[in-house]
Amino acid sequence: QVQLVESGGGLVQAGGSLRLSCAVSGDIFSINTMGWYRQAPGKQRELVATITGGGSTNYADSVKGRFTISRDNAKNRVSLQMNSLKPEDTAVYYCNAELLLRGTRWGQGTQVTVSS
Questions:
Q1: 75 C-beta neighbours (distance < 10 Å), count
Q2: Cα–Cα dist 93/108, whole Å
Q3: How many Å apart are CA 67 and CA 78, to the nearest integer?
Q4: Which of 22, 24, 51, 72 is the least crowded, having the fewest Cβ atoms under 10 Å away?
């Protein structure tokens, strides 16, 4: 059984910061790319940021310069530091992990709400 458990969502005013974390546990061999996606009401889920096992990162244009993704390979954990938050960042944020021999797994989602 593999689990991805997210934490760190909440309500923040525009311009504020939040840090999301996701821990992967269970029967895993290794983790390839990890990432964060988000889904706002009435919209499709979209990529926010990804990070490979070697540390290469990729960001959506809308969050470049404001969000930073990082990972701790020893702890099977990925984090997303979100600064200068905007109301349009409001969404449910999902952790994603590509697992060797286990496929792609998703967390349950954590709500981020940015008030204007």
A1: 11
A2: 9
A3: 13
A4: 72
